[in-house]
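BUG: 3D viewer hangs when loading the predicted structure for this chain

Environment: internal workstation, default settings.
Expected: structure renders.
Actual: progress bar stalls at 90%.

Input used:
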Amino acid sequence: MSRPGKRFERPGPDTHGFIDRQSAGIALARVLLSLKLPEPICVLGLPRGGVPVAYEVARTLGAKLDVMVVRKICAPCEPEVAIGAIAPGGIVEPQPAAEPLLQAFEVTFAQLARAEHKELEQRERVYHASAPSLSLAGHTVILVDEGLATGCRMLAAERAARRAGATRVVAAAPIASHDAAMRVRPEVDDLVILETVQQLFAIGDSYAHLPPVDDAEILALLERARQEPVRAGGNAPLPHSPRASSCAARA
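Structure tokens produced before the viewer hung:
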């Protein structure tokens, strides 16, 4: 079902760059605060890189934080080429024209998805070993990633959140390709993108500092978030960020 998602983007030419995930998350939080989203709110980071961004959003909004485990499906022999994604609840989101691409390799998308399913279950066990996943029923859910190259991971996450009972779904990322933004926009209630570019080959090119994120860091952020109070209205002070004043404008 298509939804008239609101799109936010920085006006101007395709120039981009963020210092790190923290500053990008703070900038995203400023825009999300302006939406005055209905409560209760859950913020879900897409592992791995989306979780540190989501932590800053949740901390600023005074919202609960969790992860939405989504696994990218890659083309055979092309580990950097995403052709779809899977998410909890049996969600499978293929890229358009994925099957024709796979015919040359004599493998189906369903076969590749099944191969990733075990890893998805393992990631869920790791991230929820100390606490069960949050209930999304009746919540506004903000899905956060560090960048959207194809949009397939975010689309799979959106479908999983709806299936889990979310009443409103917001997709948020500091940067996205134009095609990814256009794919995600009709499926969510709000889309928050600070900057769009024509093509996004490597998300790391959009950040001055983007170190790898491991499971230990994700678990530490989840534990830290559980220790912080959940506040109605999200009244945490906003740290200074040189990117924060570059908030997006309503399209």
